[in-house]
Please model this.
Amino acid sequence: MGAGGIMKKKEILYWLDPDRDPAPLFDMADKVRREAVGDGVHLRGLIEFSNICRRRCYYCGIRAGSPGVRRYRLSAEEILACARTAARLGYGTVVMQSGEDPAWGPAALIPVIEAIKKETGLAVTLSVGEHSKEDYRALRSAGADRFLLRFETSDRRLFSLLKPDSDYDNRFRCLAWLKEAGFQVGSGVMAGLPGQTRESMADDILLFKELDLDMVGIGPFIASPDTPMAGAECGTLDAALRMVALTRAVTRDAHIPATTAMGSVDPLGRQKALRCGANVLMPNISPTEHRPDYRLYPGKICTDEAPERCAACVESMLAGLGRRRAEGQGHSLKGGK
Ligand code: 5AD
Ligand code: FES
Model:
């Protein structure tokens, strides 16, 4: 296995085999992580600012029309208060994530982005779904630095099954527009989706490389009740970790988070991810009262905690791993960004 060389699909498939001992892969990915991005772990404060969504993705617990979801949207002032909390906790970035909420469209977001930049100077990452090329440009001009838009699976057929009101080609058009607009771009997938083949997971990883992503987020699929996928078999942490390790090996310097979904399927899930390629944590800084309502999947961690609790938790996690907080805002490590 060549840690420095580019992995071929055949080798990726070899390591995605659940019967293969992943230890050599994980060790190699940990080494590549240390060489390419160092021991520092970037902390990004996650603000889940609206759970209102116009889409009906089959896997998602806050899909439009889902019964029993108590809908909420934070006000501009509440979002700004979260950003102040992030600054106080010493995080370099705020990640503003929401459903595709028509009331929180680009026009409404722009003054909030400007206010956060002006008042805190933090890096701002948006995770607010599909928009037009012009809107992406406007969000970038307002000062947003990064954008996360997972493509969820590279398998066109599976994508249209899981996202009945989205278009596969448009998803990738959006990723190209984001790059053109000058964002640092993140994407990613769920591991272990029903009907997802190992072949398509290998394609996901090769596509991360081809898209030249700045950030890649991967988490296990967790079946949500009250969705069309209730009762479906969930993805395993093992599959998600293998994908993280392979993504590290293939991209080398992408920022890769140890995701909340990983911590939700295994209490040590995020620690394990940090030891096989991940270099980012996204502690939740949303107001505690709304956290239970941003339930993308059951068993989601940090739903009862206050921002300070998550901060203390990630701090002790890093200490336990012999890692440290990274310096700076954690911008892309790719040239020119
Ligand atoms: N299980 C795991 N991850 C999920 N996401 C949404 N629903 C689920 C689920 N049931 C992930 C998607 C989305 C991100 C915000 O959360 O990949 O892009
Ligand atoms: Fe929230 Fe551990 S990160 S409780």
In short: The two ends are 31 Å apart (CA to CA).
